Amino acid sequence: MSILFVDESKTKGYTMVAALVVPGDVASLRRDVRSLVLPGQRRIHFTKEQPERKRLILSRLTAFGAQAHVFHCATKNQVVGRDACLTGIVAHAAEHAHTKIVIERDESIQKSDRQILFREVRRHGLGDALSYALEAPHQEPLLWVADAIAWSYTRGGEWKQRVDPLIAGITKLAA
Question: What pTM did the predictor assign?
Answer without folding.
Answer: 0.96
